Amino acid sequence: MMDGRFPRQDVTSEILLFSSVKSLLRFRLVSKSWCSLIKSNDFIDNHLLRRQTNGNVMVVKRYVRTPERDMFSFYNINSPELDELLPDLPNPYFKNIKFDYDYFYLPQRVNLMGPCNGLICLAYGDCVLLSNPALREIKRLPPTPFANPEGHCTDIIGYGFGNTCNDCYKVVLIESVGPEDHHINIYVYYSDTNSWKHIEDDSTPIKYICHFPCNELFFKGAFHWNANSTDIFYADFILTFDIITEVFKEMAYPHCLAQFSNSFLSLMSLNECLAMVRYKEWMEEPELFDIWVMKQYGVRESWTKQYVIGPQVVVCSHVCWKSDECLIVEDGNGQLVSCAFRTNEIKKLPIYAVEETLRVLIVDESLISLNRVLNF
């Protein structure tokens, strides 16, 4: 402010674009013009573009016993000790889930997906939540309106969350129906119309989406899952679903690893390439694990074993961080561990939870409100 006057609007906007979401929420109280500027879609979209190169928030979904609850925790990945950025955000909807599912509620099967423009998706069974953790917003999506015949057992075996633009997001549910007359249902939710659609596609023989932790990935405009065409537990191909065309395709694993028996697989993005972490199932003692990278997307022959890491106990592989130089995994004691690709340095992080319940994302802060995204 100079001579009691605010800077010109365009100068103000340019300065504010460098501010964090937390600061901008405070700046909305400075004046009506600042509030109007910060709430405008143009400013929000430009701020998102600026923040996408400076993502610094680790969002951790944790299940703890004292008191027993699910929560989000937030950490500054640029601080040496992973300083907490915000107070924990409890998930109020999980009380309802516990009531609905009674003792069948398994926090180990909660899926955390994203981020997409600062938004994340949390799913358990047919309960799907969207959240903007920076704005501390969380909402439950309406349930699917489709019912299966009585006597059929159903199970949601695959989830996906992605976006086509800043105002249109999709959630995919893959449902297994059986045991008699076994078939697969595909449901897609559209945020711009607040509606679900049943997708019928018999071209891909899906039998099973593997329940590996962190099995799903939204990458290059498509959802990816480890899947198979038989009733066996292990994956034999990667199933993709294009978010625009809504068409399924299959992608092959490396020739030498056509069937990953006795292994878990986690899909991830590494240096803008599709990648996967292969580690031994039910690992009890420290062992080596592999990082495979598809150098040319969609080309089977381009799969390369990029790194061998460990030995380290891995219960779940989560996400790359530190400019894709390290991988975050969960050890056998419910603690997060950082593994450096090039130096093989193993560092325990000060983040704990009940074993197998940790889920981790690196998120770019966003001002996009769920009230803008969800049409209800």
Automatic annotation (TrEMBL):
Pfam families documented for this protein: F-box (PF00646), FBA_1 (PF07734)
SUPFAM superfamilies: F-box domain
Bilayer-spanning residue ranges: none
Domain F-box per the UniProt entry, residue ranges: 6-47
Classification via InterPro entries: F-box-assoc_dom_typ1 (IPR006527), F-box-assoc_interact_dom (IPR017451), F-box-like_dom_sf (IPR036047), F-box_dom (IPR001810), SCF_F-box_component (IPR050796)
Annotated NCBIfam families: F_box_assoc_1 (TIGR01640)
PANTHER family recorded: BNACNNG10540D PROTEIN, F-BOX PROTEIN CPR30-LIKE
Protein name as annotated: S locus F-box (SLF)-S1 protein
Organism the protein comes from: Antirrhinum hispanicum (Snapdragon)
